[in-house]
Amino acid sequence: MLVDVHSHLMFPQFEKDLDEVVKRAKKAGVKYILCSGVNHSTNVKALELAEKYDIVYPSLGIYPLDAVGLGHSDDVSARQIEELNVDEEIEFIRKNKDKILAIGEIGLDKLPENPKLEQQKEVFWKVIGLAEKIKKPVVVHTRKAEADCIEILESSKLKDVVLHCFTGKLKLVKKAEDLGFYLSIPAVVTRLKHFQAVIERTSINNLLTETDAPYLSPYAGERNEPSYIRETIKIISKIKNISENEAEKIIFSNFQKIFLKKEQ
């Protein structure tokens, strides 16, 4: 049973063939796909997709750049800045708390020249406060701000934390593991040695799998999709010197512990 704890199936790249994408995911053995919102329109879409597809579950979020009016910068087609009232969006997430598995993606991003980092931190703290109140795990994005992110999370009361596609230094990976956080490994691990090193240095009991679809494909130049989670499992099993079946079972158990609150 495979899990994709971070994807963006509501993005324009999936408009024409999402039914087929979901069918391929099911055929590959994917049982849960967390569809992560970045602003209001994508949060609404995540809820809609969860109603339509039985293996899709919403994770509602406020992307750090959207939170400060800079737009979601990963994709040209998504760069149109959406007016976002942070407090209203937090209330929207709260009202839908019984429909979601997590809050995310949220976090910090230093990539633009003027990222309004202090404002980002204020929003990050607000959403962390909501997660603490409604007792939901968080899926965290951090780019060039990994140390700041870890410091804030460590200062919070949150225990159920997933660091999505974490590219920070390995000493920060170790600190995250020591704090009991989870690191979700993207399918691009087939091509990036950093994520292979994260797998090697981190207990498998702190690992999860993700795609960040449509980005970070294991195949250069191709769109990513949830069925490619199988490629991540192959790498994890090879590095940890266990069978793919065992790796799959452990990752699914980790998923249950944090998102379904089932102790194994």
Looking across the biggest beta sheet, what order are the strands in? Answer: 1-2-3-4-5-6-7-8
The helix fraction, in percent, is 40-55%
CATH secondary-structure class: Alpha Beta
- Percent of residues in β-strands: 15-25%
Total strand count, please? 8
| SSE topology string | EHEHEHHEHEHEHEHEHH
Distance between the termini: 15 Å
Low-confidence stretches: none
Keywords, separated by commas or semicolons:
264 residues; alpha/beta; 43% helix; globular
Structural account:
The chain is of the alpha/beta class. Helices cover 43% and strands 17% of the residues. It has helices at 18-28, 40-52, 64-67, 86-95, 117-134, 146-155, 170-178, 193-201, 229-240, 244-260; strands at 2-7, 30-36, 56-60, 102-109, 138-143, 161-164, 182-186, 207-210. Helix 9 (229-240) packs across helix 10. The longest helix has 18 residues, at 117-134. It is globular.
In short:
The protein is of the alpha/beta class and 264 residues long. Helices cover 43% and strands 17% of the residues.
Please describe the topology of this protein.
Layout lengths: L1 E6 L10 H11 L1 E7 L3 H13 L3 E5 L3 H4 L18 H10 L6 E8 L7 H18 L3 E6 L2 H10 L5 E4 L5 H9 L3 E5 L6 H9 L5 E4 L18 H12 L3 H17 L4
Parallel strand pairs: 1-2, 2-3, 3-4, 4-5, 5-6, 6-7, 7-8
